[in-house]
Design a protein that fits this description.
Layout: H1 3-22, E1 27-31, E2 37-42, H2 46-58, H3 60-67, E3 72-76, E4 79-86, E5 89-94, H4 103-129
Antiparallel strand pairs: 1-2, 1-5, 3-4, 4-5
């Protein structure tokens, strides 16, 4: 991900990681494909996160499974954890010692990370193709300005309890 896409995505990765922790995960970390931390929420050390992702990336069979959408089991300090890839980012999730109904949180988190990467790509592409402001009006006190309006947003739905 280039700098512009990364900046856009990082804002949203932090939000979805915090929501996943609020929904019941003990911790969530999002890393890029080179192991750089993009977002961290909950009780998790960045070094532990990198170690788990590096371990999962070390075995070519595990890496292939991750690239095909599988979720790998791991543990951090005897706590169950999962490692997944969504779009081009690694997600490390630490489950509470007594997990219940957390697969829903995991699935939603992966989907949201996929959407963030797609939106970052669209946002970057959109910056290159925006039309210039119209020269046939606006910019004076004679009337309303004629400027292109672009609205981009992301909606994160929280589970209802």
């Amino acid at each position: 991900m280039d700098g512009k896409k990364r900046e856009y995505a990082n804002r949203h990765f932090a939000t979805v990681a915090k929501h996943a922790v609020a929904d019941g995960l003990d911790a969530v970390a999002v890393l890029d494909s080179e192991g750089r931390l993009l977002a961290l929420a909950g009780d998790l050390d960045a070094n532990e996160t990198r170690a788990v992702a590096a371990f999962a990336n070390r075995d070519s069979d595990d890496r292939s499974r991750l690239m095909n959408g599988d979720v790998l089991d791991a543990s951090i300090d005897d706590q169950p954890a999962r490692v997944a890839i969504a779009a081009s980012v690694w997600i490390v999730m630490v489950f509470p010692r007594d997990p219940s109904e957390l697969q829903r949180v995991v699935d939603r988190l992966r989907m949201q990370c996929d959407q963030i990467v797609a939106m970052a790509n669209e946002e970057s592409a959109r910056d290159d193709i925006l039309p210039p402001p119209s020269s046939s009006g606006g910019g004076s006190s004679s009337g309303p300005a004629e400027l292109p309006l672009v609205e981009v947003g992301i909606t994160v739905r929280r589970g209802q309890n």
